[in-house]
Structures are given as C-alpha cells and as structure tokens.
Amino acid sequence: MIGRIHSIESFGTVDGPGIRYVIFMQGCLLRCQFCHNPDTWDTKGGKEIEVDELMADIQTYLPYMESSNGGVTVSGGEPLLQMDFLIELFTKCKELDIHTAIDSSAGCFSNTPFFMKKLEKLLQLTDLILLDLKQIDNDKHKKLTGLPNTHILEFARILSDRNVPVWIRHVLVPGKTDNPEDLKRLSAFIQTLKNVQKIEVLPYHKLGVYKWENLGLKYPLDNVEPPSEEVVRRAIDILNATQ
Ligand code: SF4
Fold it and tell me: What start and end residues bound the annotated signal peptide (predicted)?
C-alpha cells in the first residue's frame, strides 16, 4: 500500500508518550490561519512511500521506542485522509507490539457508512488519538479554519462512545482562540467526554510563516504575536477546571 507523506521525524518527543517515530501525512482539508505546515495541505503534494519501506525504517528505532514506552504517531496534514494506508501501517505496527497514535484535527470526518467502516477498523489498531479542538464557537471556527466544527465535535463524541483514549490539544492563538468564555465552553464540552486522558495547550508560534511565503501565500496572522506565559497559564487552568 502506498501513502503520501510530507516528512518523518524519527525522534519525536511531543506527539504522544515516549520517543516517537512521527510520520507527517500529506493533505489537509482545513486551512487554519495559524498553520505552521501549509506545505502539507496539497493532497497531491509530498512524496509517495510504501508501508513496507516505512516499516523497515521504523524497526531501526524500535530500541528507543521500547526503552521510552514510545511508539509511532501519524500526524499531518490530516492522517484520516489516508485511512487505508494507516490501517495497513498500524496492522504491521501491532504485529511488532508498537504503540500507535494519530494526531488529527478530524476536518475530513464524515459520519457515513463508507468513512465509519474504515474508521472502526482503524480505531481497533489505535492506542491513542491526539485530537485538535481549535475553536468551540462554530462561526469563529469557520473563520479560523475554513470549515465548521460540528463534524469535528461529532467525531470527538464518537471516540468517547467507543472509549478510545484521547489527548485534547488546543492551539492558543491570541485574539482567535484565547477568549476565556470560549475556553469555558470548550472545557464544558470536553467534560462531556469520558475518554480524555490529558488536555494540552499549545502556544501559537510563528515558526512556519516562511512556508507561507515560500508558497506565495499571504500569512493572515502577521500582526499576532505568541501568547504570554500568563495567558497560557490561564487557558490551562480554564480548560482543566471542573465546571
Ligand atoms: S489541521 Fe493542521 S495541517 Fe491542517 S490546516 Fe490546520 S494546522 Fe494546518
């Protein structure tokens, strides 16, 4: 099975537990204004790779994964755009007892028999989902990402119903996703889920701005600076507060 990937990070430490082999998949349907990987958007971009080629490389890092309780994470872009590839990859990971995680924004999720059939299969092979919830307010979500959040929240509920372990991730963008009332609503939603192991606040940064320029795109958040430590701390407190 051939998949389309953007890049590989063989010693990832932030996308799941332990040391992780992180595969950044190519293609995304969202257009987040703060995206630091716009070069992953094009579904026809990146490079093609066989599952077996990837597995051969993954196996050379097995000692590091085993000693750190790490594993393999597929990120993006949006990995759920290539579920057939993920199913074969994770099937082979499980044959080697490798922990598997998906970092997803669920922008391509649709509750259709076609999608759900593949998703159910994939979830059986997945130990953890890092789910990005970008903005709880639907109108603001549309402006921020180009798409509504209704199907993304539905995906979150499906994971909860199936008890799939989830880490929620929220990118904190000043003026866009740091409003305390929005964060309280997001926190209330997260508390309706019964499978959340961790909530992570990821401070917005500008490290990917040069990629927008290289692609000839105008960066929409030119005037936005990274949040202060105080604002990050406040967001962490709100999202973790019991309401
Ligand atoms: S979901 Fe991720 S890859 Fe896609 S546009 Fe948003 S930040 Fe970028």
Answer: none
**Pocket around ligand 1: residues whose beta carbon is below 6 Å from it?**
28, 30-32, 35, 37, 40, 76-78, 105, 107
CA distance 150 to 160: 15
> Residue 243 — very low, low, confident or very high, per pLDDT cuts 50/70/90?
low
User: Could you tell me what percentage of the chain is helix, strand and coil, using 3-state DSSP and rounding each to the nearest 5?
Assistant: 40, 20, 40
Residue 96 sits in a domain whose CATH number is 3.20.20.70
- Number of structural domains in the chain: 1
Alpha-carbon gap, residue 36 to 94, rounded angstroms? 31
Measured in Å, residue 37 CA sits from the centre of ligand 1 at: 7
Check whether 14 has a pLDDT greater than 70: yes
Nearest CA to ligand 1 atom 3: 77
Relative to the CA of 40, which ligand 1 atom is closest? 3
CA of 111 to the centre of ligand 1 (A): 21
Residue to mutate (ligand 1; options 15, 23, 30; most atoms within 8 A of CB): 30
Task: Determine the Cα–Cα distance for residues 40 and 48; give it in Å rounded to an integer.
Answer: 13
> Residue 228, exposed/middle/buried by CB under 10 A (0-12, 13-18, 19+)?
exposed
Tens-digit pLDDT profile for residues 117-145:
999 999 999 999 999 999 999 999 999 99
